[in-house]
Every structure is written in C-alpha cells, then in structure tokens.
Amino acid sequence: MVLMLLPAVAIYSVFLVLPVIYAAYYSFTNSNGVTKAKLVGVANYRNLVDDHLFWNSLKNSGIIVGVGLVVLLPAAFFVAILLSGKIPGSGFLRASIFGPAIIAPILVGLVWVYILDPHLGLVNRALSAVGIPWQPQWIGGTKWTPFVVGLVFVWQQLGFVMTIFYAGLRSLPSDVVEAVQIDGASAWQRIRYITFPMMREPFGICAALVITGALKVFELVYVLTSGGPAHLSDVLATYMYSVTFGDFHYGYGMSLSIALTLLGIVGAVLSLSLVRRRGDYT
Prior knowledge:
By secondary structure, the chain is mainly α. It has 13 helices and no strands.
C-alpha cells in the first residue's frame, strides 16, 4: 500500500511542497533573479506592513472573497435545490450552468472585457441606447472593479459549487425528507430546518474552495484591467506577479506569495472548522 502511494507523494512533493519551501527561503533574501541572493532576514515582511499597494491588493482580494461567500454560496445552494427537483430538462440545465467552470479563466476574462469595457462594452452601450446617463467604469477604475471581478468569478464558479451542493443533496437520507413531507412541512420549512442543517459539511467544503479560489484569482484581473490604473485594481496574485516578474524583486515577490499562501490556509481551516462536529444538526 505504501509503495503504491509513493508516485503520488513524489509528484505532490515536487510540484507543490518543494516550490513552497523554495519560495519561503527566497522570501528572506534580496533576490532579483540575476545576481546571487543574500539573506536579509524579515526585511521583506516588514516592507509588506508599510506597502500601501499590498494593503490595497489585499482589500481587493477580500472584496472578491466576500462576494464569493455572500453571493456564490447561497446562489449555488438554491440552484442545486431547484435542479434536484423533478423539473423538465434538469440535466441540460446542470450541464449549461457547469459549462463556464471548464472554460479557461483567461478566455472568460476576454469575453467579459467586451461586455464590461466602459467605452466599448455591451453593458454601457445598452445603457446609452435606452437613454440612461449612468455608465460607470465597471473595469479599470478604482471603485467597481473588485466587485465586478467578484461577480465574474461567481458566474464562472457557480456550476462547480452547485455540483458539490447537488451531490450533497442527493446523499441526504430519504427517510428523513419523506418524514417531514408527511408531517406537512412546507418547502421553505424543509430547507430551513432539515436540508440546510444537514448540509453543513458541503457548505464548509464549498466555503473553503471559494475562499482559496477567490484568493488565487489572477487571469480575470490580468485580462480585465492588468491591475491598473497604477496597481489600484490589483489583487494579491496580480500584484505578486507584477513585483516578481515586472520589477524583478523576487525576494519581495516570494514574501507576497507566502502571505497569500498563509491567507488561503487560514481561510480554509476556518471554513472546515464549521464541519468538524459531524452529526450535530441542531
């Protein structure tokens, strides 16, 4: 059994564990990717505290995470409930909703550029066509961009998260559901007092996936705004990329990557802690 696990452990270590260790080491150096790196202790992490662009990118990433938790989780849950019922064409609807999840994020970003561009996008052109003067700068500005990116992230991931909820709904004990139906509980009462409490584990898993997925958003922001203007629409991943491969501050970029990794771990642990006590549905 151990020998059968060795190939998977080796691949995991080479492509996941070692890069993290490598990044952690270089986060304590002044590496620029060309000259020999020198250890500088925690100087890079001290610079994070004073870097307003880091805090701005952290705020933007937090907004995307918040949109994902507030919009994506409830939407995916209720869509899964609707599609778990006996409605015509539910299989086709599930496949259609899941479709965006298998599209490359960079292609998703390109599609939404033509929809949200403040000058040529379909949204503002439609608003102009019906005589509405309010035509905000959906992308590339300093106000709406992280919220819009969060909604695009919701659109892309809705089918994936819905599939997890759908599998959880299908695994619920049928005798409990039938018992409350016989007792005359309404649809909302069944959701509120039976379905929702028994779906705590899928909710915790989906919350962890949403948090880590939202923190890793890169292609959407890179295609929609490239982090501009002046890095004000950057998220943690795009700011890390800009610092590392644009400014060649590899040591500082690695400290950003470690901070991003730690945030993802903390978010996932907090989410999964909600499902630690199995069997308690009260």
